[in-house]
Give the backbone structure.
Amino acid sequence: MIYLDNVAVFVRVVELGTLSAAGRDLRISPAVASHRIKELEKHLGVRLFNRTTRQVSPTEHGRAFYEGAKKVLDAVAEAEANVASLSDRPRGVIRVTAPLGFGRRFIASGIPEFHDRFPEIEVRLRLSDHNVDMMKEGIDLAFRLGLMEDSSLRMRGILECERVLVASAEYLARKGVPEVPAALVTGGHECLLLRFPGSREFFWTLHGPDGPEKVDVSGPFDSDDGDVLTDWALAGRGIVMKPRFEVEPYLRSGRLQVVLPQAPPPAVQLAAVYPHRKFQDPKLRLFLEFMVARCQRMVRDALAAA
């Protein structure tokens, strides 16, 4: 078992690029992670990593060992899932990711209740508005708003989510109310953009009078946190595109107003995605069913209160 633990540390170091990141992921210190790598290298009689002060990279031996080691760990995880399916007390760790604002309100708030029901299942939640590489990061389940591009993942649809452009009355009084999508550009409007490293050139797709229309929006403010964009919109700093359920309380109170209601953005799918083999794991199925029902109820309640 100690050898298998050492192999698990090695795999996470390769995938995350540093001993400290692997240590955080596995809940061990960098010193313990380093010791386990050294034990593995001693056992194999080869050097597995080239080390610098900031990161490590696998040697030729390390790259070759990684492929086989990953398969071994996957096989062990599958075997454990098969055994767990015969038990009425599922246990173990689930690694989950979700968008920041949605994850805080819908996923994080439900994890304590899930843990009360299934105390032997540990949920490790990572929140990010950037789509995390699930395979590289070792994520079991991701909640996403948008289109699924990776065909190697399975998808469980949760809800179709209406999206709206919104801004404060203060902003619209200062900058004017756009009447057509093109006015977002020609009218000099300030659009609040969700960006992160690697973001492509930005545009919004809106349903104009002649069908879908791409608008090359811009503005002085952007962030990789969707809640920050909402705060800026509330402060009168621009127009933001959001799922309606996220801003419905502000629409009801009048703090935000819908912009271009006659030319809305297309709806997006709220979905859970996961590697195909992961769904054999009963603890993942339990968590997914719990959160799907919870998200559907909370979103519908938020919209019904309008």
